[in-house]
TrEMBL record:
It comes from Helicocarpus griseus UAMH5409. It comes from the Eukaryota. InterPro entries: Methyltransf_25, SAM-dependent_MTases_sf. This is Methyltransferase domain-containing protein. It holds the Pfam family Methyltransf_25.
Length: 357
């Protein structure tokens, strides 16, 4: 989107975060690698009528296969996800803790704003990929008259207690949505790239658009797990670069690790209007000079350390066949580089919004 095509109103309504518009320095590419306590699934026969009222209507009993776990290198994974190449991250207590830290980091980045576009008094909100449920819980608590529905492939990380106006459902986002047309005021999609097939994205956008009310908004957040340097000092010899290349290589056959930089175009192609995108350089430790960014980096250090291990464990060892010793050496070296302030390491974080006309 060009500067000339933005209106003043659009810029003012979307200012959830730090960082420049659309571009940041040193983004390296690789040519060679190119409710109520209930969990309920979406029904394949869900109604598309506007009379859909109860978030639990049209659901079926949870398929027991979604509950099965498999232990790999001491971490617990959802068996259904790894066997069907859907999501290769762990779903255990350690990952729940990491996701909570990550949510707090993003909350600081977004200045505690849960909703970025102008959606006053939302009545229905959909959260795609709720993870440990923190965002959905906070929205449900902030808007007690709003029905909040969350979808995730895994039921294992949901909170034990949820507000009465929150329903957490189990389903695969790679499947077509079964929610009614013109139903939600807001759809939130955050960090789903590792679980969404790369060919699914255009139809995923269309599903979101169909289920939004006219004038409803979508907000999307994706992180490109390709570590960058704010001063360009990370080279091919660095462990952080090696980790990034191997992680991208391990997942890119079926996933799109670079989708964050494409969100704006995907939204526009799907027919959304008032599309805005921001790129945020998310520091991995407390290297920034700016006090606020330094605090964010300090908060994010714990998340970054844990993320390098948890998200890459299965892909690198099972898909790329790294030995346990090779994996541990790579992660240990990458941790040391995160803590080296001279490298100024960060992840590119993309935030996009769009409105259904």
């Amino acid at each position: 989107m060009t500067e000339a095509s933005r209106t003043t109103a659009e810029v003012h309504i979307f200012n959830p975060c730090i960082g420049p518009w659309t571009r940041g320095p040193y983004v390296i590419e690789y040519d060679a690698i190119l409710s109520n306590g209930k969990i309920i699934p979406l029904s394949a026969s869900g109604s598309n009528s506007a009379g859909y009222k109860n978030p639990e209507s049209g659901t079926t009993e949870l398929d027991e296969s979604f509950l099965e776990l498999v232990t790999y290198q001491g971490r617990e994974f959802q068996k259904y996800s790894v066997e069907n190449n859907i999501y290769l991250g762990p779903v255990d207590d350690d990952e729940i803790e990491r996701l909570e830290v990550q949510h707090q980091v993003l909350s600081e980045v977004f200045e505690n704003r849960l909703i970025f576009p102008p959606v006053p008094g939302p009545k229905r909100v959909l959260d795609c990929g709720y993870g440990n449920g923190t965002w959905a819980v906070e929205v449900a608590e902030q808007y007690p008259s709003c029905d909040v529905i969350g979808i995730d492939i895994s039921p294992h990380m949901k909170p034990d207690e949820t507000p009465e106006n929150l329903w957490l459902q189990v389903d695969d986002l790679n499947r077509p949505f079964t929610f009614p047309t013109n139903y939600f005021d807001l759809v939130n999609s955050r960090l789903v790239a590792s679980g969404l097939d790369k060919t699914r994205w255009p139809r995923y956008m269309q599903d979101i658009k169909r289920t939004l009310k006219r004038g409803g908004w979508v907000q999307m957040v994706e992180m490109y797990l390709n570590v960058q340097s704010d001063n360009g000092t990370i080279t091919e010899e660095n462990a952080l670069r090696k980790w990034s290349k191997r992680y991208v290589e391990a997942i890119e056959e079926s996933k799109d690790p670079r989708v964050g930089m494409k969100l704006g175009n995907l939204l526009s192609s799907a027919g959304f209007v008032n599309v805005e995108t921001r790129l945020i350089n998310l520091p991995l430790s407390a290297w920034p000079v700016d006090p606020r960014l330094r605090e964010i980096g300090a908060m994010n250090r714990n998340n970054a350390h844990r993320l390098l291990r948890s998200l890459a464990l299965y892909p690198l060892m099972e898909r790329l066949h790294l030995s346990q010793e090779q994996f541990e050496t790579l992660v240990t070296q990458a941790h040391a580089e995160i803590d080296n302030p001279s490298l100024k390491a960060y992840f590119p974080l993309y935030v996009s919004i769009g409105r259904k006309p």
